[in-house]
Recover the amino acids of this structure.
């Protein structure tokens, strides 16, 4: 864990959607490394409650919706509890699979709101606070759907590709303010989100992946915490793909 | 109550803080100067707006109004005076 703690006093992270899956795994790694972590999601889970019990002084959860809430308010709430934010992990996201031809317009709007517009507003709220102190790091959790075409995920893919565009331009804009911005681009890994992948598709994905399997949540979380750490101090504006070689 | 003179003070002090060593302590901030003439680049201007949100308690640039339409220190003061006035009228009405 030394990679996450190098050379610094305890730090503060906001991880959106850390009630389960990747967000919770990243939060746990940061907590174990001495960070304070705030998160929000629409609902809580038993696994979240357990982690909250283990870290009562340094982990906090509030109900919240990245598509609808005032993101500046979430950042202010975090600041009041733990101090100014050093790191944002823009992790909250939803996947809905359906052919674009028949997808209700409202669903397209929702997917873009949760996976792109909300995260962009959250990045702005955090970057404003980070720019005052001249340091910070933002990690946008994208997806390999932003790099390659896949049937049934057009709106999700558009949002994630938008997030990668946001990453590159923000890195240019915020680099001079001491803020790094990267996209983490995971392939498929086992969480509630991938439980909707059919067995047939799972076999297909495995066959097309050079490493011959899906990833684990921990394998993705490790790269996330590396990118947040000072070990990655010279990495910004990049999309870092962690997919067992699926897109190579 | 924040009056215009008070807001001018808040804005010019925030600019002086941001300029740091770039500002000659004997000089006042000329109100009709453009931000570039004062020595603020676009990133510093953004940081000024963020600092003023804390000082004044409002960010006038969240709705239709955009910072790119504001060119001088005086125009910036006028924007804050307007929103601070709106906030106070709203508070009195409550
Ligand atoms: N799993 C994969 O294979 C995979 C692959 C590529 C990329 N990703 C990306 O990785 C990230 C994490 O995915 P995961 O697999 O860990 O998914 P997950 O297990 O479904 O967790 C998603 C988290 O986001 C929260 N969330 C969803 N909608 C939200 C909203 N509107 N406002 C606030 N929070 C919201 C969820 O809580 P609530 O539902 O209670 O709000 C939950 O905490 C996502 O951005 C996803 O797109 C995942």
């Amino acid at each position: 864990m030394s990679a996450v703690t190098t050379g610094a006093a305890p730090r503060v992270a906001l991880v959106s959607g850390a009630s389960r899956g990747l967000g919770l795994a990243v939060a746990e790694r940061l907590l174990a490394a001495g960070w304070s972590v705030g998160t929000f999601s629409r609902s809580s889970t038993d696994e979240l409650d357990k982690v909250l019990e283990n870290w009562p002084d340094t982990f906090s959860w509030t109900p919240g919706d990245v598509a609808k809430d005032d993101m500046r308010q979430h950042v202010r709430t975090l600041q009041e509890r733990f101090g100014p934010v050093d790191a944002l992990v823009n992790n909250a996201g939803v996947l809905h699979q359906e052919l674009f031809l028949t997808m209700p317009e409202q669903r397209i709007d929702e997917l873009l709101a949760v996976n792109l517009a909300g995260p962009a507003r959250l990045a702005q709220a955090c970057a404003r606070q980070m720019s005052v102190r001249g340091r910070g790091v933002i990690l946008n959790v994208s997806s390999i759907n932003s790099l390659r075409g896949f049937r049934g995920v057009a709106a999700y893919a558009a949002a994630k590709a938008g997030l990668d565009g946001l990453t590159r331009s923000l890195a240019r804009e915020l680099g001079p303010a001491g803020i790094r911005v990267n996209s983490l681009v995971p392939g498929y890994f086992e969480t509630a989100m991938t439980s909707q992948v059919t067995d047939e598709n799972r076999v297909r994905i495995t066959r097309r992946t050079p490493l011959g399997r899906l990833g684990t949540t921990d394998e993705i979380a490790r790269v996330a915490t590396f990118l947040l750490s000072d070990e990655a101090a010279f990495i910004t504006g990049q999309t870092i793909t962690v997919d067992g070689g699926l897109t190579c | 109550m924040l009056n215009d003179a008070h807001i001018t003070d808040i804005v010019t002090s925030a600019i002086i803080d941001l300029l740091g060593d770039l500002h000659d302590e004997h000089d006042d901030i000329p109100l009709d100067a453009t931000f570039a003439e004062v020595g603020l680049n676009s990133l510093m201007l953004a940081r000024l707006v963020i600092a003023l949100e804390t000082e004044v308690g409002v960010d006038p640039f969240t709705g239709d109004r955009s910072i790119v339409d504001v060119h001088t220190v005086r125009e910036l003061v006028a924007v804050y005076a307007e929103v601070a006035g709106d906030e106070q009228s709203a508070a009195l009405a409550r």
In short: The radius of gyration of chain A is 17 Å. Chain A has eight helices and seven strands.
